[in-house]
Amino acid sequence: MAHSNNTSTIPIVDFGAFLDGRQEEKERVARQMDDAFREVGFVYLKNHGIPKDKVEECFSWSNKFFALPLETKMLAPHPPSGAHHRGYSAPGLEKVTQHQYEKDEIAKSREVPDYKESYESGNVNDEAQPNIWLPEEKLPGFRTFMESYFTECAALIHRILDALSIALAVPAGGLSPTHSQSLFQLRLLHYPAIDAAELKNNNRSRINAHSDFGTLTLLFQDDVGGLEVEDPKHPGHFSRAGPVEDAVLVNIGDLMMRWSNDRWRSTVHRVGLPPPRTMSIPGPGVDTEGRRNGGKVVELEDAEGVVVPDRYSIPFFATADMDTVIEALPGTWGADRPKKYEPVTAWGYVQMRMAATYEE
């Protein structure tokens, strides 16, 4: 395993050895992932099996979708509550919180709005959470591609579940059969350009510190940056988790943490200012790129009037089937390691978290 220059804490694992290797190679990769999830709750996977051109095409469709007029995007509106998590959410509709369930707590968190917009889709055959699509003529080909990309991501989730089943010695069949894809969610995210001062002064947020609800999350991100992951050993200290070329970032969600009885961490993460970078503010006789003498070189975070560029990311969330009871798996608890959580159904837990995310 190696470490990215973008972060000092998140390992990089070659998942191709699991997809194509012999049993001993599969076990080695499973151990590497186990170590990563025990230490930080995140891992970068290279050679994950989703073709690079497919990932790039998904970002292209995301750009096309969010570039549509608001009234067009609102033809596929997210319902007002979080119970049906599909469709388009305009900036300010969703506010991510971390275990806040009282109405006054939720209202206070909304005083600093999340400045982002999103589009959610899921399994084509999902009767519990049917998809909400634009009329085909508004963005021809969008639905067909997104359904195809969903299938690619779902297949990768099941292979990751196979690896985690080896790590936890889950008996025959492993964790994969508990995930029918009905609660899987493909999300397109757009963080519009914003004045750096708005983020720095906490007038707005891109997305607040939070953990994910489900079992696993895949994250594809552009090169703008801004994702930060909390150090589990030093709460409140965040490290950058920028993109690694041709890798997908994978993290543990709350339900998998409960299933593993806290062996694996559902680590808190957030999106804020991108990494500091120098840029030129034009001066006398200087073009807009600051290429001639007279410009002032500044740090992005310190520049007055500097606009943080648009950021796009594509997370894919996996959750166990609705009625699956999540409680400590055999081998994760015993006399010296008691069960830390009461049993909960996957659907019950997700609905509790979603109710705090969308106003009723």
TrEMBL record:
<dbReference type="GO" id="GO:0046872">
    <property type="term" value="F:metal ion binding"/>
</dbReference>
<comment type="similarity">
    <text>Belongs to the iron/ascorbate-dependent oxidoreductase family.</text>
</comment>
<dbReference type="InterPro" id="IPR050231">
    <property type="entry name" value="Iron_ascorbate_oxido_reductase"/>
</dbReference>
<keyword id="KW-0560">Oxidoreductase</keyword>
<dbReference type="InterPro" id="IPR044861">
    <property type="entry name" value="IPNS-like_FE2OG_OXY"/>
</dbReference>
<dbReference type="InterPro" id="IPR005123">
    <property type="entry name" value="Oxoglu/Fe-dep_dioxygenase_dom"/>
</dbReference>
<keyword id="KW-0408">Iron</keyword>
<keyword id="KW-0479">Metal-binding</keyword>
<protein>
    <submittedName>
        <fullName>Clavaminate synthase-like protein</fullName>
    </submittedName>
</protein>
<dbReference type="InterPro" id="IPR026992">
    <property type="entry name" value="DIOX_N"/>
</dbReference>
<dbReference type="GO" id="GO:0044283">
    <property type="term" value="P:small molecule biosynthetic process"/>
</dbReference>
<dbReference type="Pfam" id="PF14226">
    <property type="entry name" value="DIOX_N"/>
</dbReference>
<feature type="domain" description="Fe2OG dioxygenase">
    <location>
        <begin position="182"/>
        <end position="320"/>
    </location>
</feature>
<dbReference type="Pfam" id="PF03171">
    <property type="entry name" value="2OG-FeII_Oxy"/>
</dbReference>
<dbReference type="InterPro" id="IPR027443">
    <property type="entry name" value="IPNS-like_sf"/>
</dbReference>
<dbReference type="GO" id="GO:0016491">
    <property type="term" value="F:oxidoreductase activity"/>
</dbReference>
